Amino acid sequence: MDTQLHILLFKVFHIHRKQMRSDMHNYGLYPGQPKVLRYINAHKDSKLSEIAKECDIECATASKILDSLTENEMVERHIDPKNKRALQVNITKKGQKALSLWEAHCKEIEAVALQGFDESEILRFKQDMIRIYENLSNKKT
Fold first, then answer.
1. Which of 38, 43, 59, 82 could cross-link to 52 by cystine, CB 3.0-4.6 Å?
2. Contacts of 24 (CB under 8 A, 6+ apart)
3. Residue 95: which residues within 8 A CB-CB, separation 6 or more?
4. Predicted pLDDT of residue 1
5. Inter-CA distances, 38 with 12, 72, 94, Å
6. Which of 44, 31, 32 is closest to 75 using CA atoms?
């Protein structure tokens, strides 16, 4: 096997994204929204800048995603009582349900992708992926 790493990474990324997005609309979600919902679900009273930073997206992108999630009643925004110029974002029940369905979908795809791997191989793979991410992003996970 002499395929270059960047080709393998692209092929895996492409097929993974295709399978992940194939049913996304069934949950009322669109690209970029699941990771934002996941962050908001784990962090009560999230702020736009925090969401953008932790999701590795620009503030303008996070703002557009939040607009569509708000419109679809998956998140709520309210004024931060400590800073009247800032908004806080929280997930709604509808958003939690969509995220739960999305997470189940992700687990199904992950199970298929990791067929034949034992626990030590999966752990090593995750560690290697983290290293690659940290090397390319100059960020610690």
1. 59
2. 30, 31, 34, 102
3. 37, 40, 41, 69, 73, 74, 75
4. 62
5. 23, 16, 13
6. 44
Residues 77 and 75: their CA atoms lie apart, in Å, by 7
Name which of 20, 27, 9, 16 is nearest 106 in CA terms: 20
User: In the numeric block, which tokens belong to residue 64?
Assistant: 């557009």
pLDDT in tens, 63-84: 999 999 999 999 999 987 888 7
In the chain the domains, ranked by start, together with CATH numbers, are 5-115 (1.10.10.10)
* 39: amino acid identity, one letter: Y
User: pLDDT for 10-61, tens place per residue?
Assistant: 999 999 999 999 889 999 999 999 999 999 999 999 999 999 999 999 999 9
Q: What is the pTM of this model?
A: 0.85
Euclidean distance between CA atoms 28 and 22, whole angstroms: 12
